[in-house]
Amino acid sequence: MVRDLGKPYFGICLGHQLLAQALGGHVGLMKEPEVGLATIHLTEEGQHDTLFSKTPHEMEIFQWHGAEVQTLPEGAVILAANAACPVQAMRVGPHAWGLQYHVEMTDTTVAEWSAIPEYKASMEKALGVERAAGLESTLAPLLPGFNAMAHNLNESLFARLPPHS
Questions:
Q1: Which residues contact 37 (CB under 8 A, 6 or more apart)?
Q2: Out of 44, 58, 74, 104, which one is annotated catalytic?
Q3: Are 148 and 103 in contact (CB under 8 A)?
Q4: How far is CA 35 from the centre of its chain?
Q5: Cα-based distances in Å from 37 to 3, 84, 138, 156
Q6: pLDDT in tens, 113-154
Q7: Does the active-site annotation cover 32?
C-alpha cells in the first residue's frame, strides 16, 4: 500500500520494523536488546533527507527494542545508524520513513512501559537493575530536547505532504 498508493508513512519502533517487513525486508532479534539512551549518526543520505533537515548529524536518542531491521526492503536507504543497530532510520521511496528509536517520550513513558513485565525484564537485562531503576530520572532532563526533535521531525514530515484540495 505504501508503494502502490504513494501515501506518506511514518513509523516508530514497531512501525519502522513493520514497514521493512511489509515491503520485503527482514526483521529479526538482536544479539542484545537496545534500551535507554544511545547515540546515532545520520548517514550521508540522512544528512540530505528533508525529514532530518533540522536535525544534528549526531543525536542522543531513546531506545527500547530487541528486534531490528536486518535486511532492507528494495529501494530503502539507511538514514541513521549506530553500532548496535545499523538501521536506526530509513526511507523507502520518496514518502515512507521509519525510525527504530523513540521521539514520542513523555514524563510517564518509562513508568508506563516498565509496568509491562516483558518490557521491564528487557530494560533490566540491557541496563542492569540499578541503572534501570534510575532510567526515568535520567531521561527527565532530556525530555525538552526529545520534544524539540519530535516537533522538528513533525514539521519536516508535514512539509512533505501534498496540499489539501
A1: 60, 61, 62, 63, 138, 139, 142
A2: 104
A3: no
A4: 12
A5: 33, 12, 9, 24
A6: 999 999 999 999 999 999 999 999 999 999 999 999 999 999
A7: no
3-state secondary structure the chain: CHHHHCCCEEEECHHHHHHHHHCCCEEEEEEEEEEEEEEEEECHHHHHCHHHCCCCCEEEEEEEEEEEEEECCCCEEEEEECCCCCCCEEEECCCEEEECCECCCCCCHHHHHHCCHHHHHHHHHHHCHHHHHCHHHHHHHHHHHHHHHHHHHHHHHHHHCCCCC
Q: Which residue of the set 13, 34, 65, 85 is catalytic?
A: 13
Quick: pLDDT tens for 61-73.
Answer: 999 999 999 999 9
Is 102 assigned a catalytic role?
Answer: yes
Catalytic residue among 41, 45, 60, 102: 102
Please tell me what DSSP assigns to residue 106: -
